[in-house]
Amino acid sequence: MSEQGAGEPAIGILQSLRNLATTLVALLQNRLELLATDIEEERIRLLQVLFWAAGALFFFALGVLTITMFVVLLLWDSHRLAGIIVLSAVFLAIGVGLAIGVYKRMHRRSRLFSASLDELTKDKDRLTSR
C-alpha cells in the first residue's frame, strides 16, 4: 500500500501536466484560428476595395476624358494649344498629388491582426495576474 501512495502524487502531477499541455494546445489552436480569420477578412476587404477602386478609376477617367475633349473642342478655333497645355498641367498635378498620397499610405503602419493581438494580450495578462 505504501507503493500506491508514493505513485499517486506522481500520477497526479503527470495528469496535471497533460491537462496543462492540452489547455495550451487548445489555446494556441484557438489563437491560430482567430489569426486565420483575420487574414481571410483582410483579404476579402482588400479585394472589395480593389474592385471598387478599379470601377471608380475607370469611370473617373472616362469623365475626365470626356471633359477634356469638350474643352479642347470648345477652344479649337481660338486657344486649342493653351487649353491642352493647361489641362495637361492640371492632370499631371493631380496625378503627382495622388502618387504622394499613395506613397504616404503605403508607409503607414496598419493594424492587420489587431483582434489576434488583443486576445494574446488578454491571455498574457490573465496568465501573469495569477
Describe this structure in a few short sentences:
With 130 residues, this protein is mostly helical.
Structural overview:
- This protein is mainly alpha-helical and 130 residues long.
- The chain is 89% helix and 0% strand.
- It has three helices and no strands.
- The chain has one domain.
Write the layout of secondary structure elements.
Blueprint: H1 2-74, H2 80-106, H3 114-129
Question: Main beta sheet: strand number and arrangement?
Answer: none
User: Percent helix among the residues?
Assistant: over 70%
This entry's quaternary arrangement is: single chain
Mean pLDDT: 82
The total count of helices amounts to 3
Low-confidence parts: none
Summing up helix and strand content along with how strands pair, one would put the structural category as mainly alpha
Number of strands: 0
Give the amount of beta strand, in percent.
under 5%
Specify the overall morphology: rod-shaped
Give the helices and strands as they follow along the chain: HHH
* Cα separation of the termini: 36 Å
**Whole-angstrom Rg:** 31 Å
What is the number of domains?
A: 1
Features:
mainly alpha; 130 residues; single chain
